[in-house]
């Protein structure tokens, strides 16, 4: 191992042996005396090559404290410069681990000449808590990993330990010297290289770590970040907080996001957009920027709503005649339901709507495109109708293509009605 590290700027050789009776009996099959002798010999040999030698007592948290202190005292005499206290199977509770580290510091002769280290596993989800407890007890080295990757449930997550010390400097009064602004980028690099994906709700580096979806939380963060964020996301290289727009989001959050996208809407326009937003948010988990932009485009280009859709029921299938049942409102008044058939579901829908409206026109263009991705994608339908030599266009947007088709058609018809009124013909 010396050949592997001899040219390093700060070379260190790390030796270890288990000290718990469980490991001694079932894995190593040796006595405490034999394990102690092996530990000392390993440190002495490493010391012949390297000045900096670390010794770990594997499964220290399940070891007899008296025996553990005896082993540590002897390896210090042999030349160890770092004593590592591992919670190898993530068994310890924070208070227990604090007491174990204090016991070692208070009882091992020569402890003042070495660095006390800890190495905690996350089997009970306590790796970071135990590491912080050890720091409080006097440990000054924490062995941890980016994203908490490691054996079984992983190790203490470096980013969590570092940012806990940073955020609670008032309690710890310690610095790590780590450039925290590289944390997120490093996390993504490790994720990419290992193929081990970070869970969305992972502290510090998870996708949702600085994302806010609750309306109350969003309102608070937009007014003052400290209301719901104890760490500035820029401190870990993440840029600004993310406001996730969903069914819990309020008008204030939607308005703020629209302004960030460059839209300045009147209160009346914002009211219409927000109503459409809430309707869409009930259908999909998150409303994306593209969804908002599509809604705004739809609302801004909307003519006065003479006809509006109350409901549309369309049935279509293989070897079946497409059938539509539609009910509209005219200037707010509910009209009688109408039914019709067609060559396809949209054709049946349009013929039924045309029957209710009863204004001469013809459909000249119809197109569909997806605005967003995934199974909850927003679809945009664009239609063009012609009447009296003039063309009127409509756009409808929805996660339901039949609904989008109806809205687009009615928007075009409403523009036609508006034009006829301007001419005094309606």
Plain-language structure description:
With 426 residues, the chain is α/β, with parallel strands linked by helices. The chain folds into three domains: 2-143, TIM Barrel; 246-300; 303-422, Alpha-isopropylmalate synthase LeuA, regulatory domain (Double Stranded RNA Binding Domain, 2-Layer Sandwich), CATH 3.30.160. Helices cover 41% and strands 19% of the residues. It contains 15 helices and 14 strands. It has helices at 2-5, 21-28, 32-49, 65-78, 94-107, 127-137, 158-167, 169-172, 183-194, 215-223, 251-260, 267-281, 289-300, 345-357, 401-422; strands at 13-18, 53-58, 82-87, 115-120, 141-143, 211-212, 242-243, 307-315, 323-330, 333-334, 338-341, 362-370, 379-387, 390-398. A five-stranded parallel sheet has the order 1-2-3-4-5. Strands 8, 9, 10 and 11 form a four-stranded antiparallel sheet that branches. Strands 12-13-14 form a three-stranded antiparallel sheet. A hairpin with a 2-residue loop joins strand 13 and strand 14. Helix 14 packs parallel to helix 15 (401-422). It is elongated and about 105 Å long. The model has no long low-confidence stretch (mean pLDDT 89).
CATH topology of the largest domain: TIM Barrel
Most strands sheet: 5 strands, parallel
Encode the helix/strand succession as letters: HEHHEHEHEHEHHHEHEHHHEEEEHEEEH
Q: Return the average pLDDT rounded to an integer.
A: 89
Q: In brief, what are we looking at here?
A:
This protein has helices spanning 2-5, 21-28, 32-49, 65-78, 94-107, 127-137, 158-167, 169-172, 183-194, 215-223, 251-260, 267-281, 289-300, 345-357, 401-422; strands at 13-18, 53-58, 82-87, 115-120, 141-143, 211-212, 242-243, 307-315, 323-330, 333-334, 338-341, 362-370, 379-387, 390-398. It has 426 residues and is an alpha/beta fold.
């Amino acid at each position: 191992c010396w050949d592997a590290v001899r040219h390093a700027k700060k070379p260190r050789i790390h030796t270890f042996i288990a000290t718990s009776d469980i490991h001694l009996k079932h894995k190593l099959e040796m006595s405490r005396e034999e394990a102690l002798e092996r530990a000392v010999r390993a440190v002495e040999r490493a010391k012949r090559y390297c000045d900096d030698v670390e010794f770990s007592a594997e499964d220290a948290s399940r070891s007899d404290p008296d025996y553990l202190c005896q082993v540590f005292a002897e390896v210090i005499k042999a030349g160890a410069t770092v004593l590592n206290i591992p919670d190898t199977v993530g068994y310890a509770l924070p208070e227990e681990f604090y007491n174990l580290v204090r016991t070692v510091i208070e009882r091992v002769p020569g402890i003042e000449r070495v660095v006390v280290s800890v190495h905690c596993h996350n089997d009970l989800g306590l790796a970071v808590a135990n590491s912080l407890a050890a720091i409080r007890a006097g440990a000054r080295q924490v062995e941890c990993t980016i994203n908490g990757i490691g054996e079984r449930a992983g190790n203490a997550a470096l980013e969590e330990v570092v940012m806990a010390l940073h955020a609670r400097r008032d309690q710890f009064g310690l610095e790590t010297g780590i450039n925290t602004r590289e944390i997120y980028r490093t996390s993504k690099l490790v994720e990419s290289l290992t193929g081990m994906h970070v869970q969305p709700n992972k502290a510090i580096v998870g996708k949702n770590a600085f994302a806010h979806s609750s309306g109350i939380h969003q309102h608070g963060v937009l007014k003052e970040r400290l209301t719901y964020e104890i760490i500035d996301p820029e401190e870990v290289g993440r840029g600004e907080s993310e406001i996730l727009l969903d069914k819990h989001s309020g008008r204030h959050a939607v308005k703020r996001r629209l302004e960030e996208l460059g839209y300045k809407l009147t209160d009346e326009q914002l009211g219409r957009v927000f109503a459409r937003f809430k309707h869409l948010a009930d259908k999909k988990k998150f409303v994306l920027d593209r969804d908002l932009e599509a809604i705004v485009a739809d609302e801004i280009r909307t003519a006065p709503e003479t006809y509006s859709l109350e409901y549309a029921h369309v049935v279509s299938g293989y070897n079946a005649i497409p059938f539509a049942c539609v009910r509209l409102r005219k200037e707010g008044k509910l009209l009688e339901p109408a039914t019709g058939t067609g060559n396809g579901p949209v054709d049946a829908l349009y013929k039924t709507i045309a029957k209710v409206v009863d204004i001469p026109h013809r459909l000249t263009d119809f197109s569909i495109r997806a605005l967003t991705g995934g199974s909850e994608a927003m679809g945009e339908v664009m239609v063009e109708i012609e009447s009296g030599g003039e063309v009127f266009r409509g756009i409808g947007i929805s996660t339901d293509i039949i609904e989008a088709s109806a809205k687009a058609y009615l928007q075009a018809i409403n523009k036609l009605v508006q034009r006829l009124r301007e001419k005094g013909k309606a």
